[in-house]
Amino acid sequence: MGAEPAGGYVTCRLRRPDGVEETVRARYVVGCDGAHSTVRARAGIAFEGYAYPRTFLLADLEADGLEPGCAHTFMTAAGLLFFFPLGTPATWRMIAMRPAGAPAEEVTLDLLQRIADDWTTGRVRLRDPVWTTSFRLHNRGATRYRKGPFFLAGDAAHIHSPAGGQGMNTGIQDALNLGWKLAHVCRGAAPEELLGTYEAERAPVGRQVRRLTDRAFTVGTGSHPALRLARVHLAPRVAPLVLRVTGLRARLFRAVSELAVHYRRSPASTTGPDRPRGGPRAGDRLPDLPRGLQRRTAGPGYHLLLTGPHHLWPQSPPVHELVTVHRLGVDGPWPGVTHALIRPDGHVGYVAGGTDLAGLRAYLARWLPGA
Question: What's the predicted TM-score (pTM) here?
Answer without folding.
Answer: 0.85
